[in-house]
Design brief:
Helix content of chain A: under 10%
Order of helices and strands of chain A: EEEEEHHEEEEEEEEEEE
Number of strands of chain B: 16
Order of helices and strands of chain B: EEEEEHHEEEEEEEEEEE
Largest interface: A-B, 41 and 45 residues
Shape of chain B: globular
Largest sheet of chain A: 14 strands, mixed
Shape of chain A: globular
Distance between the termini of chain A: 22 Å
Number of helices of chain B: 2
Strand content of chain B: over 45%
Number of domains of chain B: 1
Number of domains of chain A: 1
Radius of gyration of chain A: 16 Å
Structural class of chain B: mainly beta
Oligomer: heterodimer
Structural class of chain A: mainly beta
Largest sheet of chain B: 14 strands, mixed
Distance between the termini of chain B: 17 Å
Radius of gyration of chain B: 16 Å
């Protein structure tokens, strides 16, 4: 619930949407990972960015499961990579992090209904097409997380979580292998497929 | 007061909700022109866009007689938001123009973020209308979290990121609506009457 003081202390790092899908092998390792960003404000402007690890455990990926960073704002792509993604252990520690190919976005299209059954984001660019599909959606939940509860360990974060019980990452018409896993966020057990809307990352004054 | 990580309330809707409220003179008690834009990404009534324009807020007439209208691509959603939110906000409560505004169909929305610190605009077209809302000379982003007691509706909790605009324009079919941006007390600060509002989520408290 909001605190009584209406203005949250700190500096806004960025705000927007940040849905993702993490697929898992039978041994528990990640088989494919995707994080999409639709940024409404950042110090380097608005934009859309997709981080795709088709082959998380490879710095040089297969052409049919590539490791790509799509963006329609190059500065934003670099900003998120350096200041945000690079602080999330699951992404930073994957060999794919150091072998990303940068791709200019040609188009982004969202479809479906996040309070219905299915929602998608389709991103194209430089001959690649990536479709992210979330299905069997749960009700939205408003989250307010403190630095000890977020992946960066540095931010106060507000977001709207819509968990999905089914999801796919489809690259150039091919569904990447793997299944969804479980994760716990702020004591809440959820899945590794999630929509995050109206997400704001704030650097607290004492950070 | 300690944060509750997962808000126990019901998420109502989320999206962007910037506005422009203009007065003839700084000393005027009331506004002469009002405009609110909506980009709703999640609600029980689906997604959608809309703008409410009241060029004569207290007159019980609509378009094309005078520019009192709402233009939207999701009427059911906006009927719900007008009844449940806009009509309860002090700036709009009891306005004859709100009750008598004409409901128009929206064909397209186009935003021009440019350098978001200096200018931002939303252009809406449909039903023979071109509406342009322009925000100029923005301040830094302000993260807000508002309790029911402090919220504009008096009934909901709200999270958002506000950027005040020190100048703004409402243009309907190439005609600039009357008035200019003034200052007001908001969130305990002196802020302007034009604002961008990103990542805005409204929650009905659990009790």
């Amino acid at each position: 619930m909001p605190l009584a003081q209406p203005i949250t202390p700190g500096v806004v790092d960025w705000t927007g949407e940040n849905p993702g899908i993490l697929l898992i092998n039978d041994d528990g390792s990640f088989s494919a990972m995707a994080l999409f960003f639709r940024v409404a404000w950042s110090p380097v402007g608005q934009g859309q960015v997709l981080l795709l690890y088709g082959s998380p455990r490879r710095s040089r990926a297969n052409p049919d499961a590539p490791n790509l960073l799509f963006s329609d704002n190059t500065d934003l792509g670099h900003y998120l990579l350096d200041n945000f993604i690079g602080k999330l252990a699951a992404f930073r520690d994957a060999p794919a992090f150091d072998g990303l190919t940068h791709v200019s976005i040609q188009s982004v299209r969202s479809s479906g209904d996040p309070m219905g059954h299915r929602y998608t984001e389709t991103i194209t660019g430089e001959g690649h097409s990536v479709e992210l599909v979330w299905e069997d959606l749960e009700k939205p939940r408003a989250l307010e997380l403190t630095p000890d509860q977020v992946g960066t360990g540095e931010h106060t974060m507000f977001t709207l979580l819509v968990p999905a019980r089914q999801a796919q990452i489809i690259v150039n018409g091919r569904s990447l292998p793997g299944k969804l896993g479980k994760r716990v966020q702020a004591g809440f057990e959820t899945t590794t497929a999630f929509l995050y809307f109206s997400e704001t990352w704030v650097i607290p004054p004492d950070a | 007061m300690k944060r509750v990580s997962i808000n126990p309330g019901r998420v109502d809707w989320s999206g962007e909700n910037p506005g422009i409220y203009l007065k003839h003179e700084a000393t005027d008690e009331d506004y002469c022109s009002l405009a609110l834009f909506f980009r709703v990404v999640l609600s029980p009534h689906g997604r959608g866009h809309a703008a409410i324009v009241l060029a004569a807020p207290d007159e019980d007439r609509g378009w094309p007689d005078i520019p009192n209208f709402i233009i939207t691509d999701n009427q059911r959603l906006m009927r719900w938001i007008v009844d449940g939110w806009v009509g309860k906000m002090p700036t709009f409560r009891g306005r004859a123009g709100l009750d008598h505004m004409t409901w128009l169909d929206l064909d397209s929305v186009h935003k021009r973020p440019g350098d978001i610190q200096s200018s931002y605009s939303e252009t809406l077209r449909g039903s023979g209308i071109t509406l342009e809302m322009k925000w100029l000379d923005m301040g830094p982003p302000i993260p807000v979290e508002v309790t029911r007691e402090n919220s504009a509706t008096g009934e909901h909790e709200m999270y958002s990121v506000f950027l005040e605009a020190r100048a703004a324009e409402i243009i309907v079919n190439d005609t600039l609506l009357a008035g200019s941006v003034q200052s007001r007390q908001l969130f305990g600060r002196d802020l302007s009457t034009a604002f961008l509002a990103f990542s805005e989520t409204w929650v009905s408290p659990a009790n």
